[in-house]
């Protein structure tokens, strides 16, 4: 399984992903899911992948070959055009492999996140579906997820605000979201790749890979759990309808069946 996340704020973008891939409980490996396409001063694009590893590798190979030859992501004028270019490669791989995969009951299930900035355009973030069509993040919904999304979503819904959340705060939300997912699903695991992109910089300056024993990751995990417990302890007690004198209401006598 996979969990990848992109966050869009007024200050820029945050990307995070796990690195675990598995084909059964006894075939667990590490595989990078966060990939960068950069021309300093001109464009920065980040692509995150989820789904069948072989399918994602095929899509990534086609995208990178185009970029290195000056086409595709190397020449688009906007992130929307970039998302469409990646979608074309998704459909190309679907034409090659989808029928054979589905014949053996293997779903064609790649989902991708593409974010970044092209010079002259604002930063943007898109989710690209297995059919190749893109969905854009908005100010009201400033994050997109792929893979095992449910465990890491609540903290994002409660905390992220496009106009208010700083990049540094968004990075913390991203790591907490990854940590919550890894805590609840063993198929999502470290290393955690984290990248912050400052709007208008057109270069990557802040990127890190956090291993399972990384002190930063351990500290965030421990302090977040402690903070949750403390928050619960400080919440007001639940009122269960106790009487004004502080005594618990007496239960009504049971009626014997007839």
How does this model look, in words?
The chain is α+β, with helices and mostly antiparallel strands and 258 residues long. It has a single domain, classed as Aminohydrolase, N-terminal nucleophile (Ntn) domain (Glutamine Phosphoribosylpyrophosphate, subunit 1, domain 1, 4-Layer Sandwich). The chain has helices spanning 53-68, 79-103, 153-159, 167-184, 215-234, and strands at 3-9, 12-17, 20-22, 28-30, 34-39, 43-50, 111-118, 124-128, 134-136, 143-147, 192-198, 206-210. Helix 1 (53-68) runs antiparallel to helix 2. The model has no long low-confidence stretch (mean pLDDT 92).
Say how many strands there are.
12
Looking at how many chains there are and whether they match, the oligomeric state comes to single chain
Q: SS-based structural class?
A: alpha+beta
CATH topology: Glutamine Phosphoribosylpyrophosphate, subunit 1, domain 1
What is the number of helical segments per DSSP (H or I, 4+ residues)? Answer: 5
Ordered list of secondary-structure elements with their pairings:
Elements: E1 3-9, E2 12-17, E3 20-22, E4 28-30, E5 34-39, E6 43-50, H1 53-68, H2 79-103, E7 111-118, E8 124-128, E9 134-136, E10 143-147, H3 153-159, H4 167-184, E11 192-198, E12 206-210, H5 215-234
Antiparallel strand pairs: 1-2, 1-10, 2-11, 3-4, 5-6, 6-7, 7-8, 8-9, 11-12
């Amino acid at each position: 399984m996979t969990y990848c996340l992109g966050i869009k704020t007024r200050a820029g973008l945050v990307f995070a992903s796990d690195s675990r891939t598995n084909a059964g409980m006894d075939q667990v490996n590490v595989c990078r899911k966060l990939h960068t396409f950069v021309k300093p001063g001109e464009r920065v694009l980040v692509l995150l992948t989820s789904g069948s590893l072989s399918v994602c590798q095929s899509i990534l190979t086609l995208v990178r070959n185009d970029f290195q030859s000056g086409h595709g992501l190397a020449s688009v004028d906007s992130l929307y055009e970039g998302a469409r270019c990646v979608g074309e490669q998704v459909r190309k791989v679907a034409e090659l492999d989808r029928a054979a995969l589905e014949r053996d009951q293997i779903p064609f299930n790649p989902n991708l996140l593409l974010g970044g900035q092209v010079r002259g355009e604002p930063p943007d973030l898109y989710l690209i579906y297995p059919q190749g069509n893109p969905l854009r993040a908005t100010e009201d919904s400033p994050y997109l997820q792929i893979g095992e999304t449910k465990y890491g979503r609540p903290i994002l819904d409660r905390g992220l605000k496009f106009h208010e959340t700083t990049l540094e705060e968004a990075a913390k939300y991203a790591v907490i979201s990854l940590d919550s997912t890894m805590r609840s699903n063993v198929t999502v695991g470290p290393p955690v790749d984290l990248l912050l992109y400052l709007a208008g910089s057109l270069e990557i300056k802040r990127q890190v890979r956090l291993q399972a024993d990384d002190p930063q990751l351990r500290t965030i995990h421990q302090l977040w759990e402690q903070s949750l417990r403390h928050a619960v302890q400080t919440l007001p007690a639940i009122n269960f309808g106790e009487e004004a004198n502080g005594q618990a209401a007496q239960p009504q006598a049971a009626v014997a069946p007839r």
